[in-house]
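Box 4.2: Ligand-aware structure prediction
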Amino acid sequence: METTRSDVLVLGGGVIGLSCALALLHRGASVRVLDRGEPGCGASHGNCGTLTPSHAIPLSVPDMPWRALHWMLRRDAPLYVNPHPDWERWRWLLGFARRCNAAAAERAAVVRAAILQRSWTLLPRVLVDEGIDCEYAPAGNLFVYRTAQALAHDRGEIEWLHRLGIAATPLRGDEVEALEPALLPGVVGGVLHPDDAQLRPDKLVDGLARRVRECGGVIETGAAVEGFRCADGRVAAVRTPRGEFIGGRIVLALGAWTPRVAALLDLHVPIQPGKGYSITMSRPELCPQRALVLHEPSVCVTAWGSGYRLGSTMEFSGYDAHLNRTRLDALRRGAAAYLRAPLGAQVHEEWWGWRPMCVDEIPLIGPVARWNNLLLASGHGMLGVSMSAATAELVATLVAGGQPLLDAAAYSPARFDL
Ligand SMILES: Cc1cc2nc3c(=O)[nH]c(=O)nc-3n(C[C@H](O)[C@H](O)[C@H](O)COP(=O)(O)OP(=O)(O)OC[C@H]3O[C@@H](n4cnc5c(N)ncnc54)[C@H](O)[C@@H]3O)c2cc1C
């Protein structure tokens, strides 16, 4: 069997793996990316493409368990937990519920804000420097509310975001409707996040993959990681159907698949797949001018020059790989209640993807204690695109032995004894 060696092997060719690969190549390392499919075929393909420092506040706020229980009764609710017994899933959910308190949420928000803001600064520069055209637009993000109760509930978060240094402007219903003529009347209020941005995520991963190859990196497709050969506290080789690969350092960036592959190395990684859906269409005749979050049904609307996408919903049903039509149709119904022209004439794609949800909603980035040449770069949950550039910078700095700008300890897998 052929054995191929690189300075760094990156396992997983999603937005995180490819961003890391490119940053490592720029530091002079030889890099090989292994993906079981084509680059960008996982969650990085059909997501909503919003870059959102505004999402720094985690889901695990104190009242989340009650809201989640209420939603569990509806199969088309924004959050759905499959009640089928699955020990790993329920252990994760209990861990998540334990973190639904003010102190943990405050800590997570600070750490998330730091990586989101660093990425927000870096990513536009990366796109220019690398010549990646992915319809990037710093157009802002508008949260839209149609019930006074939901608006009142979220108003407290504006002050919280301000404390984190993130812009958020409360708006009255008439101001929201004037800003976005695509909305139907009946809006009670909104929050504008003027610094958020958007891009087309499939074009981002195509551009990253192209640049990885142009910079001398190799992307092995159809190279599913099936096992490892370990010796002397190191991962000596990675086994795939395409042969064995050797890396001086190994970066494990397998998104929601991370826990399954990490288990082969005796690592228990607290990530569960959080399934989300999207529908990509041609642009309707009246499109929103910026990304919208339709708050009550929790639907994200992103319009690019090349198309239009409705996305979101969160489903914890393990590695169940089927497209749930009830949940997909909830996106259409949600949009129809808010938008004058909610659907485009042609459907380009109906899609689902697994978000890599880390139990504390902070990505796992950095070396693990058990294997001295292995790093994790995973668990970015709902924010992998938004956090990608700073993740890559952190990984490349750690591999080079430099001093990271971010507080590396805050993202370190060591917080889970990994
Ligand atoms: C509906 C939806 C909307 C979203 N909207 C946004 C948004 O607006 N903004 C934002 O920032 N984030 C958003 N996200 C989250 C974002 O998509 C993810 O956080 C991000 O894509 C994770 O990237 P990744 O590279 O870690 O994982 P992935 O993109 O899933 O990549 C993992 C890769 O590993 C490969 N792989 C798996 N197993 C193996 C194996 N055994 N061997 C080799 N390769 C393997 C897969 O083929 C895949 O290519 C959204 C997600 C969803 C589902």
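In the box above, the bound molecule is flavin-adenine dinucleotide. The chain has a mean pLDDT of 95.
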